[in-house]
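Bug #2210: token dump truncated for Restriction endonuclease?
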Amino acid sequence: MAGGLNIKDGSKRETVKLNKAIYLGDEFKHLWDRIKFKTSYRVDFNHHDLVEKCARAIEKDLVAGKTKFEYAKGKVAIKRSELEIEESKTQSYIYDAKDYKLPDIVSYLQNATNLTRRSIVSILTQCNRLDAFRNNPQKFIDEATAIIQQVMRQFIVDGIKYQKIGDEHYYCQELFQDKELKGYLGKNMLKSDKSVYDHVVYDSGVEHDFADAFEKSEEVKVYAKLPDWFKIDTPLGTYNPDWAVLVENNNEETLYFVVETKGSLLSGSLRPTEQAKIDCGREHFKALGENVGFAKADSFESFVDQVL
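Reproduced locally. Full output below:
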């Protein structure tokens, strides 16, 4: 049985048209000229601090337990339309054999984290948890990998430095008319008078609400849902922000913003990699030096609170 399928009517798939009044206007040009530039990055961190932090995190947070297998049995009844389990029981057994060959944990962690063998050995010898590795090798490897990667993400974010490559390296505004954009009427398209296209193609209910609020707000002059070709390089993969917005404050000051919209403002509610990419994006725009603000918001109201 299938459930939760997002089925769209192919007959309603439409090519979104360029809104030339916005696309060719001065306001959008000024906005694009602020955010279009590309950057390069480097990551600086203390190697010894990284090793120590990983070792302490494994010592404190790793939970491996003992190797075990689960035995299950049940009674199956043959019904008219299907087989149905009427009764089932499970029982766990500890696997306490000591003669199995331990896997090459150093090579595994090296491949999973890209740290040197010397660094991996230092982490393992300092973590005081190798007894857990002997009890449950695979669980230990999986947990240690996740912990080391999480620590590394934080070091990357704390130590990353972006630099504008140069005035000749940027995303051309013409890409908006060269790259075709499609959506589904009545499903993920919102009519727009302030955006680069005549409709905004949104990916979620949160994005729909933002686009609708942008359209109604007198402070928002123009905006764009940033296309998937607008990417920022990070050590964790490319990052694609959500919106570029031009805001007018009290009919005087013009503010240029890149907005990342999420269902929650709490960093802990996001996947670690996702939050780290957002943090890298913030540093990217800071390095442009083009008076571009970066805001993470879960609603238009929270965006306004940061802007005005």
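Output looks complete on our side. The radius of gyration is 26 Å. Marking as cannot-reproduce; reopen if the truncation happens again.
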